[in-house]
Backbone:
């Protein structure tokens, strides 16, 4: 069974205290008191004027809140603090000094590296020239021996074991870059031949070596000794 209290609806009594705030700074008066005493209307401010022009469907509290937020956004914009100057800070000055020192040391290293590379090239070139000069000196001293071998070959005396020794000597000297030149019938080259006799001949069309008294030798591309020849000019 249900009780009697549950069947009947419960009545809720709400007492509202309707009071108005006196805009002039007076005491709070109830709605009944405000009917008896006339209240002077306060002067409208610019904000109240703006509220009257706002649409009626917008709540007054929301409008005021929106105005307050907008005013706060326009008036209280945070400003970013200025970054300290790098040049003025001790760390920036020290960093700039280290950077300058590093650049100076890098330039010094590049200069020393270039000087060392040039020094190596110069030393290698001088070493090659010194070796070539030494080899030329030794081979120049052996040229008279080669001349005697050439005369013995022309007379037919270079035979037997002596001929084998002569060929081995020429092959060994050739390994050092020694090359013989100067044969009968070669065109006359004043840079490589030394003419000791001149004659005319109808058999040649240009100056030609018709006789070789002594062969010349080259050491690589360098002339070690010119050849002695007799030259025939065309008639």
Residues:
């Amino acid at each position: 069974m249900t009780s009697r209290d549950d069947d009947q609806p419960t009545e809720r009594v709400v007492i509202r205290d309707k009071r108005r705030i006196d805009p002039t700074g007076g005491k709070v008066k109830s709605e009944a008191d405000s009917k008896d005493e006339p209240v002077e209307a306060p002067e409208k401010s610019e904000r109240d004027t703006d509220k009257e022009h706002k649409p009626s469907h917008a709540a007054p509290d929301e409008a005021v809140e929106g105005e307050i937020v907008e005013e706060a956004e326009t008036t209280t914009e945070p400003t970013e603090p200025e970054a300290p100057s790098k040049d003025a800070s001790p760390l920036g000055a020290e960093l700039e000094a280290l950077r300058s020192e590093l650049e100076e040391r890098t330039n010094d290293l590049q200069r020393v590296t270039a000087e060392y590379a040039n020094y190596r090239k110069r030393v290698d070139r001088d070493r090659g020239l010194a070796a070539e000069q030494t080899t030329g000196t030794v081979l120049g001293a052996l040229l008279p021996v080669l001349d005697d071998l050439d005369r013995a070959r022309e007379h037919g005396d270079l035979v037997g074991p002596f001929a084998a020794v002569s060929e081995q000597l020429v092959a060994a000297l050739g390994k050092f870059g020694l090359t013989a030149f100067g044969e009968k019938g070669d065109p006359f080259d004043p840079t490589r031949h030394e003419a000791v006799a001149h004659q005319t001949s109808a058999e040649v069309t240009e100056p030609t070596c018709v006789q070789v008294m002594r062969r010349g030798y080259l050491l690589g591309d360098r002339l070690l000794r010119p050849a002695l020849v007799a030259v025939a000019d065309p008639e």
Summary: The radius of gyration is 61 Å.
